[in-house]
Automatic annotation (TrEMBL):
InterPro entries: MFS, MFS_dom, MFS_trans_sf, MFS_Transporters, Sugar_transporter_CS
Subcellular localization, as worded in the UniProt entry: Cell membrane
Domain (Major facilitator superfamily (MFS) profile): residue spans on this chain: 20-414
Protein name, UniProt field: Predicted arabinose efflux permease, MFS family
Pfam families reported in the protein's UniProt record: MFS_1 (PF07690)
Gene3D superfamilies per UniProt: MFS general substrate transporter like domains (1.20.1250.20)
């Protein structure tokens, strides 16, 4: 990894505000790319491709999750080795065919292929916007940075879910809703290639002044050891990886089953799109607060409380009936995710040394996004066997158990200087 600026970079949100804002905008586009699928693609499975099995229908989420997970792992390592910007641009190149494939796919297999490319796009671009923002702000405002990053991304998911649902109601499930993806891909590639600047110099500067929490976690950590630390050896990192996996397990189940549940309840595609948008909208707005709050009061209990709140929202949706109850459950689900999602990323950034932070974030995001595939398979099998509501209740129970693991295993990771308000 090579710094590109000859002037010593300064760390901090205010010091890097223009680039930080640009990266927030880029991540909003990343969210828009995946958000174009949230309402429409689950409905395409039966309406246009005749898939009656939930397990078959959710194969597109399995393909997306597995691809994104593997790419996340390598994205962090590649970013540490070759620099941030080239990897970001490569991610946007992978996005360009996605909406075209969704528009014109002749069989369901082409939708699955589109989601492999979407997983490649999301794994590279979302990983890099996360890593680059952490690079820019340094240790003092890491939670705020992650809150803003995730708020932009999931705010765009919500907006895209609503817009594509409305377009599908007016013009049909294809091709009109996916024109949004064409515009998003072109704009994301242009901004990343032309306006985004490399942040490798900021990593070098933070490494120079980094104070180690644990002398064994110094800069010279090989990739194999980073994987072990973030998976089972380091309590906070491994607990974060577990919680991240479960967070996206319930997200994958929600992505696949919520539209089907709401349509079965007699709602129009437009109304379904509005309901689907509630959770990521609350999630996005909440993260504007929760990331910064975690910088003040700590990470651990926000993560645990978030997972318990997610579980409550899932149960409300599964056992409820009608728009008002489903909207309340979606809001609870989004609020819980807002508590946990940016805080988990901040906790990983707290523990990892700047020299291998990109790799650690990659391992965390690998396990987190395996959750999409696990959630889709679990939800599909359970929904086929016992019905959609039962599948969602089981996912809620798994989410609540994950919160208990965080409460028991994770230590408080917020740096000491942050606790004192420095």
């Amino acid at each position: 990894m090579r710094p590109v600026d000859h002037v010593t970079p300064r760390l901090g949100l205010r010091e890097n505000l223009p680039q930080f804002v640009l990266l927030v905008a880029v991540n909003a586009l990343v969210g828009g790319m995946v958000g174009q699928e949230r309402t429409v693609v689950p409905l395409l499975a039966e309406a246009e491709f005749g898939l009656a099995s939930y397990s078959a229908m959710l194969t597109f989420i399995v393909a997306f999750g597995l691809t994104k997970a593997v790419v996340n792992y390598f994205a962090g390592t590649l970013a540490d080795r070759f620099g941030r910007k080239p990897v970001l641009v490569a991610g946007w190149l992978a996005a360009l065919p996605v909406p075209l494939l969704l528009m014109w796919a002749p069989t369901w297999e082409w939708v699955v292929i589109a989601n492999i490319l979407l997983g490649l796009n999301q794994g590279l671009t979302w990983s890099l916007t996360v890593i680059m923002k952490i690079d820019l702000v340094g240790p003092h405002r890491r939670g705020l940075a992650m809150g803003l990053n995730e708020a932009a991304g999931y705010g765009a998911v919500a907006l895209a879910a609503w817009v594509t649902g409305a377009a599908a109601t007016e013009f049909g499930l294809r091709p009109a809703p996916f024109l949004l993806g064409v515009a998003v891909g072109a704009l994301g590639l242009g901004l990343s290639a032309v306006a985004v600047r490399e942040t490798a110099g900021h990593v070098a500067e933070e490494s120079r002044t980094h104070v180690r929490r644990d002398a064994s976690l110094d800069a010279a950590v090989p990739a194999r050891r980073v994987f072990a630390l973030a998976t089972w050896r380091e309590p906070a990192l491994s607990s974060a990886s577990q919680a991240g996996l479960v967070n996206n397990l319930n997200e994958g189940a929600a992505w696949g089953l919520f539209p089907v549940l709401f349509v079965a309840g007699g709602l129009s595609t437009g109304r379904v799109g509005l309901l689907i948008a509630i959770a990521p909208a609350v999630w996005a707005i909440g993260q504007l607060v929760t990331g910064a709050v975690s910088d003040r009061i700590g990470r651990k209990w926000l993560i645990a409380a978030g997972q318990w709140t997610e579980a409550a929202g899932l149960v409300t949706i599964a056992l409820g009936d009608g728009v008002a109850v489903w909207a309340a459950g979606s809001a609870l689900f989004g609020a819980g995710t807002a508590l946990a999602y940016p805080t988990l990323l901040a906790a990983v950034g707290d523990v990892a040394h700047p020299a291998w932070r990109g790799a650690a974030v990659g391992v965390y995001r690998f396990w987190r996004d395996i959750g999409f595939a696990v959630g889709a398979v679990l939800a599909g099998v359970l929904a086929d066997a016992f019905g959609v509501a039962t599948a969602i209740v089981v996912v809620a129970a798994v989410t609540a158990a994950s919160g208990l693991d965080v409460a028991g295993r994770m230590y408080e990771t917020r740096p000491p200087h942050a606790r004192s308000g420095a």
